[in-house]
């Protein structure tokens, strides 16, 4: 297949506003070239092996260079996704990039995106049109450095158009163009709102009139990217401000668990309005010793039990299993034990029922659960665990006569990359909360960021602990969690955060 370039609209910021077509193309990208306005969380959709090229803050990479890069990668036979904020054909020079591709005869496809023009007003509770207020809207840029007569803005004409007005890139010259509109006849009392980073957890809105907004925006430190809405519809915000009225709105909350596990926790927090920073501190890789795994796979039929002690173990085992076998029946007839509800849930996703499910992680409880099921003397067990798991469990099982193979099926290593820029943001501006979901998240977070130092640097930052073990690890660093979850789950953590926000 010939390579192709896809100019994909990333939407306005909220990752959920990417189109299905955009997601599909990211999943098979060889190269992703993205702008600062595109939400970097979307990069998770692309294969980890893809090449990720950021244009940098404030469009650090010049347009000519980025166009040349797109062309070079396409000519090298790669599938290139060029990810652009909002819609590719709205003020993003997408038209110019497509022209360059056409000139080089490189096949391309353009995937529309949800533009900030419509999305940001939605999230600010301001309908662009409303039967009681207006029947049209006009969009223009507030950044006119154009000496070119043909494309220069005509404020005398714009001022006369009825209906709502939307201004992109209007922050830097806000004072000039609002004054120009008043000079050309718009009422100084016209309502206006400026919205910074709309649709994201960092959304910030300032509202005023055409004459007051410039000073208000300076006072509230509104910087780009921001979109401005002018017209009577701005007043509806009082009734319709669903996004900013959510209970955790405005709170920056750090999630420290591994990205694959962070999903539902992050989603719930974001839906409650939080600005979620996913800063995973560990990741999972293949274990150092692979021979033991191969032996174990060859002998699967000889085991009476397969024992999983974590959801990670389940994922790692079946990744390896399905690489070798095409048929689930090759798993053999062993019974399956899963320690903890998350582990059992992961197995059920594969339609595998669990025969024994000890609720607690202590070796004693696990042995007890097996013995309730059967006498384990001479019973052959395969433990599928992390590389550094302690020896207590296999020893306790052996004491009862079981024949145990303790297989390291995965290894956890520190996460050092920062594709999404989340750890950079954390180091730059701190957070309101850091949530810890296990002792190991505390340890790894501390190893990466020096927790006491970070708390000292950002005194408003509070720590939330999922349970007593995690709290102990926090306290060992000379710190105190602001609260410990009553129920030791992520939902328990969310309940605590909501209570604190009241
Ligand atoms: N193609 C983009 C626009 C690119 S021009 C689109 O369709 O949305 C960049 C400008 O878009 C910014 O200066 C700002 O005015 C606006 N913008 C983009 N995303 C925004 C957001 N999340 N919040 C507020 N304004 C945004």
Give structural notes.
It is a single chain. By secondary structure, the protein is α/β, with parallel strands linked by helices. The protein has 4 domains: 5-114, Cobalt-precorrin-4 Transmethylase, domain 1, CATH 3.40.1010.10; 118-245, Tetrapyrrole methylase, C-terminal domain (Methyltransferase, Cobalt-precorrin-4 Transmethylase, Domain 2, 2-Layer Sandwich), CATH 3.30.950; 252-281 and 415-501, Rossmann fold, CATH 3.40.50.10090; 287-413, Rossmann fold. Helix content is 34%, strand content 20%. It is built from 19 helices and 20 strands. The protein has helices at 20-27, 63-75, 94-103, 116-123, 155-158, 174-183, 213-219, 237-240, 259-271, 291-298, 311-324, 341-349, 363-373, 392-399, 422-429, 439-449, 451-457, 468-475, 490-501; strands at 5-9, 31-34, 51-54, 80-84, 108-111, 137-141, 164-168, 191-196, 204-209, 226-230, 252-255, 275-278, 282-285, 305-308, 335-338, 380-386, 403-414, 433-436, 462-465, 483-484. It has a 5-stranded parallel beta sheet with strand order 3-2-4-1-5, with helices on both faces. A 5-stranded mixed beta sheet has the order 6-7-10-8-9, with helices on both faces. It has a 5-stranded parallel beta sheet with strand order 12-11-18-19-20, with helices on both faces. α5 links the parallel β6 (137-141) and β7 (164-168). α16 packs across α17 (451-457) and α16 (439-449) runs parallel beside α18 (468-475). The protein is elongated. The model has no long low-confidence stretch (mean pLDDT 93). It binds S-adenosyl-L-homocysteine.
């Amino acid at each position: 297949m010939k390579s192709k370039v896809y100019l994909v609209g990333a939407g306005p910021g909220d990752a959920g506003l990417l189109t299905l077509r955009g997601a599909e193309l990211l999943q098979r990208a060889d190269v992703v070239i993205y702008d600062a306005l595109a939400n970097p969380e979307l990069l998770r959709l692309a294969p980890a092996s893809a090449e990720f090229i950021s244009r940098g803050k404030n469009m650090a990479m010049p347009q000519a260079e980025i166009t040349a890069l797109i062309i070079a990668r396409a000519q090298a036979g790669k599938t290139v996704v060029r990810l652009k904020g909002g819609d590719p054909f709205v003020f993003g020079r997408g038209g110019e990039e497509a022209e360059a591709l056409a000139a080089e005869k490189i096949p391309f496809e353009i995937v529309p995106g949800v533009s900030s023009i419509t999305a940001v007003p939605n999230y600010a509770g301001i309908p662009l049109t409303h039967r009681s207020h207006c029947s049209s809207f006009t969009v223009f840029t507030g950044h006119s450095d154009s000496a070119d007569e043909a494309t220069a803005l005509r404020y005398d004409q714009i001022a006369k158009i009825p209906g709502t007005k939307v201004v992109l890139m209007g922050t830097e010259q806000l004072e000039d163009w609002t004054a120009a509109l008043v000079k050309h006849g718009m009422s100084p009392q016209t309502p206006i709102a400026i919205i910074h980073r709309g649709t994201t957890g960092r959304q910030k809105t300032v509202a005023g009139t055409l004459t007051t907004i410039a000073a208000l925006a300076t006072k509230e430190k509104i910087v780009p990217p921001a979109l401005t809405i002018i017209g009577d519809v701005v007043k509806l915000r009082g009734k319709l401000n669903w996004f900013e009225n959510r209970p955790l709105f405005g709170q920056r909350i750090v999630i420290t668990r591994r990205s694959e596990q962070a999903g539902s926790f992050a989603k719930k927090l974001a839906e409650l309005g939080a600005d979620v920073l996913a800063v995973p501190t560990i990741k999972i890789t293949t274990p150092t010793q692979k021979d033991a795994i191969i032996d174990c796979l060859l002998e699967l039929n000889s085991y009476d039990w397969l024992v999983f002690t974590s959801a990670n173990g389940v994922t790692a085992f079946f990744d390896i299993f399905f690489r070798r076998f095409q048929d689930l029946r090759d798993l053999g007839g062993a019974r399956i034990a899963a320690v903890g509800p998350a582990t059992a849930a992961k197995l059920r996703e594969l339609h595998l029922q669990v025969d024994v499910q000890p609720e607690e992680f202590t070796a004693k409880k696990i042995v007890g659960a097996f013995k309730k099921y059967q006498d384990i003397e001479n019973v052959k067990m395969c433990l599928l665990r992390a590389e550094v798991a302690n020896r207590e469990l296999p020893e306790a099982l052996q004491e009862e006569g079981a024949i145990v193979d303790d297989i390291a099926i995965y290894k956890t290593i520190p996460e050092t990359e920062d594709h999404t820029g989340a750890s950079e943001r954390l180091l730059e501006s701190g957070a309101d909360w850091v949530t810890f979901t296990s002792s190991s998240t505390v340890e790894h977070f501390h190893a990466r960021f020096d927790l006491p130092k970070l708390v000292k640097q950002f005194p408003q930052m509070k720590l939330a602990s999922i349970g007593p073990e995690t709290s102990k690890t926090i306290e060992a660093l000379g710190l105190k969690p602001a609260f410990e979850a009553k129920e030791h789950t992520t939902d328990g953590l969310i309940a605590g955060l909501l209570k604190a926000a009241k």
